[in-house]
TrEMBL record:
Function: Ferredoxins are iron-sulfur proteins that transfer electrons in a wide variety of metabolic reactions.
Taxonomic lineage: Bacteria, Pseudomonadati, Pseudomonadota, Alphaproteobacteria, Rhodospirillales
GO molecular function, one term: metal ion binding
Region (Disordered): 75-104
Keywords (A to Z) from UniProt: 3Fe-4S, 4Fe-4S, Electron transport, Iron, Iron-sulfur, Metal-binding, Repeat, Transport
Domain of life: Bacteria
Entries under InterPro entries matching the protein: 4Fe4S_Fe-S-bd (IPR017896), 4Fe4S_Fe_S_CS (IPR017900), 7Fe_ferredoxin (IPR000813), Fd_C (IPR022569), FdxA (IPR054829), RnfB_subfamily (IPR050294)
Keyword Metal-binding: yes
Coiled-coil boundaries: none
UniProt domain 4Fe-4S ferredoxin-type: residue ranges: 1-29, 30-59
Identification of the protein by name: Ferredoxin
């Protein structure tokens, strides 16, 4: 499965959601997650993300995020249409140490 990682926090561009053939993205206040149990590993969302936040769960960068994707996917609403990114999304792009800013 693919999962969303730290780079998405406060960027939330949402370019990923409409390309997913199985609609397995879920929306939090400032972050999106993939339900790794619904993802069919097609890989089409990965290059769509301007923040390079999406990785296969086999990637070391995703290791700490798979459980969080699964957990939040269980409580957040499904999202299938791209909404507006936060006004300051570009300012947060690529910033380190955003994990603590994730709104659960
Ligand atoms: Fe959806 Fe494919 Fe991305 Fe999985 S890899 S979340 S199925 S677009
Ligand atoms: Fe996040 Fe990238 Fe999608 S910033 S909302 S994973 S396009």
């Amino acid at each position: 499965a693919y999962v969303v990682t730290e780079n998405c926090i406060k960027c939330k561009y949402q370019d990923c959601v409409e390309v997913c053939p199985v609609d397995c993205f879920y929306e939090g206040e400032n972050f999106l997650v993939i339900n790794p149990d619904e993802c069919i590993d097609c890989g089409v969302c990965e290059p769509e993300c301007p923040a390079e936040a999406i990785f296969p769960d086999s990637d070391p960068k995703a290791a700490a995020w798979t459980d969080a994707n699964r957990q939040y996917a269980g409580s957040w609403p499904n999202i299938t249409r791209k909404g507006d990114a936060p006004a300051d999304a570009d300012e947060w792009k690529g910033k380190p140490d955003k994990t603590k800013l994730l709104s659960p």
